[in-house]
Amino acid sequence: MSQTVSTPPGELTSQQVVELTKKLNYGTWRFQKGWNPMHLADAEGCWFTDGSGNRYLDLSSQLMCVNLGHKNPAVIAAIAEQAQDLAYAGPAYATTARAELSQLLTEVLPEGLTKYFFTTSGTEANEAAFKIARMYTGKTKIIARYRSYHGSTMASIAATGDPRRWAMEPGGKGHGVIFAPEVNCYKCPIGHTYPGCGIACAQYIEHMIRNESDVAAVLVEPVVGTNGVLVPPPEYMPMLREICTRHGVLLIADEVMTGWGRTGEWFAMNHWGVKPDILVTAKGITSAYVPLGLCATTGEIAAYFDDHYFAHGHTYEAHPLTLKPAVATIREMQRLGLVERAKKMGGYLEPKLRALQTKHPSVGEVRGLGLFWALDLVKNRAAKEPFNTMAQKVDGTPLVVDKVAAEMLKRGVAIQAWVSHLIVAPPLIVTEQELDLAIDALDASLAVADAAAAA
Fold this sequence. Notes:
Distance between the termini: 57 Å
CATH superfamily of the largest domain: Type I PLP-dependent aspartate aminotransferase-like (Major domain)
Helix content: 25-40%
CATH architecture of the largest domain: 3-Layer(aba) Sandwich
Radius of gyration: 22 Å
Number of strands: 16
Mean pLDDT: 95
Number of helices: 15
Largest sheet: 7 strands, mixed
Shape: globular
Strand order of the largest sheet: 4-10-9-8-7-5-6
CATH topology of the largest domain: Aspartate Aminotransferase, domain 2
Strand content: 15-25%
CATH class of the largest domain: Alpha Beta
């Protein structure tokens, strides 16, 4: 019988940390062979440090979530205080942290969202939204969009339009999700050109509602996140709101990534003055220091459950250790004026990114809001032809964006890459000097994509 001898805590070398992680853990959304994760040993502000002491500017806030930056002392203190006061309470109990956060949410969420269900992730928040929409409307179908990501559990992955859904099909087909074209004015999926298209992608959704028997809700990321930071034209969201209202269909806004100041508003729906029936969020609600998700509904939806059974819940719902840090996060955002700051710093960042587009033939488009931007990389700018496709992402083809990201890492800047675009979404505390450093690294690294385009 073999025996494994564990290394005493605190005595692992950086290389041992990496090797144990590779051996005993799954690397997500990837082939396991060749996975060599960096040992992230420390982080502070907009920077993190690897096990060898090398520092990197965190240009994508890890997974577009560490909005406050790393090691915010107020949030850390809130975690410690809550752990000392009350580490856990079942969801049937009221807690001070639950009451404080709920009251605070009424101040910052879009008007009318006044009833809350707490989860431990964005994917769980979407699951709650789907169940609530179906219970409330008595209908079953959810219209989602291609080039979307809504989570990794069964219903939320079924509502995801990108290739991460493929692995669980055909089972996902049973979750009542049907797909509409995304809004993408750079390369319209239904062949139109904005302006002058009459917002055909929204009209298409109305056509779907009319021709389906029981649509409960339309699910959208107000600004599509991982799949390209796709910003809709100003007419789109008001038109979609009107369509949903006219047909008695709920509008669900997935603001897991776009919420909490990321786009220069508390929530991206505020850019168009549109109020969703249900809003789901996570990530920046605690600056990702602890896992927390939120499903918020209107009072009208909430009133339905006064006399109808609310058939949802789980052990960690409203976990006090997740709620107290959210209170601290929101108060820090208010104290530091980070929503307004994201808008201001976005104004500083945008012209620098557009200058890169002019300079580098591999940059097809730059798009974004606030401190949430994407650079679309193309091998043919005139044809808007991307270097790689979603299918190639799944089959393991080496991607040009990954090569650019690797070059940036050599220059001390970490950036998220997905299929054929790079995502620029630094912590909302980022300085102009840090953005300048990032732009310089990006400028130099795009030579990799330029060379690939010229080949």
